[in-house]
Design goal:
Elements lengths: L1 H20 L3 E3 L14 H6 L8 E5 L7 E4 L2 H6 L7 E3 L3 E5 L4 E6 L11 E6 L77 H23 L1
Parallel strand pairs: 1-2
Antiparallel strand pairs: 2-5, 3-4, 3-6, 6-7
Length: 225
């Protein structure tokens, strides 16, 4: 753990040393200096620079007409409020070293000069900090696309189905089964009993003989008597 802490301290020292060795001097407004004359945009001038710790900014101006005030924060800076500056410079050739990260707000305290644009915001970014995320994440869509109010209508069924035939085809009449009367009577193969031969009783035979004889006598009597 101690080794890690020592390594971090060493790294910070190396970074500071590198920044000191690479320190630069910047004249505010370049050749125009610190003034209200001309069309000087100090905001654009500062945005084009890469300020670091230990850099030096130089304000050159006519001390009879201008001065330099360092103010507390962005709100005071935007209001051009010169009532309570942190520091005031009046030499006409002021050299200020940037000793900490963040924004450094400067303005001219002569009434009306700040409002004319004689002010500058110098930012020294901290390389150890990653860029801060956006203050507001992209807002989600407030409303998802609404579905169609009416779904595609289904095909309309046919209003009337084909009418069924009024009379169904006449079914063929069942074939007439042969009736019992039409069918030939079954032939009985059973042999019929032969007529029993009745034996004439002697009484019946006698009666016939007697009748025949009587008839013969009667015929004879008619023709010959």
């Amino acid at each position: 753990m101690a080794f890690v802490e020592k390594a971090l301290v060493l790294l910070m020292m190396i970074m500071v040393a590198a920044q000191v060795s690479n320190a630069a001097d910047y004249k505010v407004g370049d050749s125009a200096g610190w003034t209200t004359k001309g069309d000087i945009n100090y905001k654009k001038w500062a945005a084009e620079k890469q300020f670091k710790i230990n850099d030096t900014i130089i304000f050159e101006y006519n001390a009879q007409f201008h001065n330099v005030m360092r103010v507390k924060n962005h709100a005071v800076y935007m209001k051009c409020d010169a009532s309570a500056p942190l520091e005031t410079y009046t030499t006409g050739n002021d050299t200020i070293k940037l000793t900490h990260y963040g924004h450094h707000f400067f303005m001219c305290g002569i009434p009306g000069h700040c409002q004319l644009g004689q002010r500058v915001d110098i930012n020294v970014p901290n390389p150890a900090k990653s860029p801060s995320p956006p203050t507001t994440s992209p807002s989600a869509p407030t409303k998802s696309p609404s579905p169609p109010t009416t779904s595609p209508s289904a095909p309309t069924p046919p209003t009337k189905s084909p009418s069924a035939p009024t009379t169904s085809p006449t079914a063929p009449a069942p074939a007439k089964s042969p009736s019992a009367s039409d069918s030939p009577a079954p032939v009985s193969n059973t042999p019929s009993p032969s007529p029993s031969r009745s034996n004439a009783s002697p009484l019946n035979v006698g009666k016939g003989a007697y009748g025949f004889v009587g008839l013969a006598i009667t015929v004879f009597a008619i023709f010959y008597i």
